[in-house]
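tokens incoming
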């Protein structure tokens, strides 16, 4: 007697996903997406969000854009400092108007899982998303086929995955130049004699960039990487703006601006 094979499972964790599941008509055919109580509540307690290289020119206007680490130099947009609070998501769960929202956030509750060492990808949905419910306003499937909403979400996820792969290639090409170093973001309150370090991160070392031999600098320009590199360097000016945003959010004085807020 044959047994029905188990549906494939998502292994490992996915950032911001509570219960990632491979989307299927068998498991999710009766479900739809509705408006959650707080639209961006799922990312209200994070300090940084992944971005792709195609997003950096837009993200650099609002956020410091850094790297996850020297070993895993994935670009991140910094949205919070010191506390686990996304300073761009208000108490009402809305993202601040006219600020760039990273694609990783816009695609949620959908995502992508890829085969280990394979080329194929599968669409994932967060079963823990509070806007996912039976009979939701925007059905995932209609008569067993993905609805237009689902098709659009799938296409967005595929495009984002292509950008992510290009981002992986970018950081691989950047590695030989050894421009990514550990850095500190510092602030000196009025009247203080010593600066306070409020963030430690990995970023582009501007001094090393300026000291590159002419042939190496030309390589970066011809590869198209130079514009992205300078966008990340320019984004460092947002550290101070992020501090000011934090001070407003928690009603902090300049002397308190780098203190941890106790709940």
């Amino acid at each position: 007697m044959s047994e029905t094979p188990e549906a494939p499972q998502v292994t490992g964790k996915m950032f911001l996903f509570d219960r990632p599941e491979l989307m299927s008509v068998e498991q999710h055919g009766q479900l739809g997406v509705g408006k959650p109580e707080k639209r961006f509540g799922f990312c209200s307690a994070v300090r940084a969000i992944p971005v792709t290289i195609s997003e950096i020119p837009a993200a650099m206007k609002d956020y410091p854009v850094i790297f996850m680490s020297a070993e895993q130099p994935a670009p991140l947009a910094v949205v919070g400092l010191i506390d686990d609070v996304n300073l761009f998501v208000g108490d009402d769960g809305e993202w601040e108007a006219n600020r760039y929202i990273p694609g990783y956030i816009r695609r949620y509750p959908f995502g992508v899982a890829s085969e280990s060492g394979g080329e194929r990808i599968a669409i994932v949905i967060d079963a823990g998303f509070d806007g996912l419910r039976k009979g939701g306003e925007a059905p995932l499937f209609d008569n067993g086929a993905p609805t237009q909403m689902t098709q659009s979400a799938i296409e967005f996820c595929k495009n984002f995955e292509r950008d992510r792969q290009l981002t992986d290639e970018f950081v691989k090409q950047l590695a030989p130049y050894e421009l990514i170093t550990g850095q500190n973001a510092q602030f000196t309150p009025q009247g203080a004699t010593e600066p306070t370090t409020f963030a430690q991160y990995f970023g582009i070392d501007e001094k090393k960039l300026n000291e590159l031999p002419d042939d190496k600098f030309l390589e970066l320009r011809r590869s198209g990487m130079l514009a992205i590199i300078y966008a990340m360097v320019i984004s460092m000016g947002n550290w101070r703006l992020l501090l000011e945003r934090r001070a407003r959010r928690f009603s902090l004085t300049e002397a308190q601006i780098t203190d941890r807020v106790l709940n």
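note: Confidence is low (pLDDT under 50) at residues 1-8.
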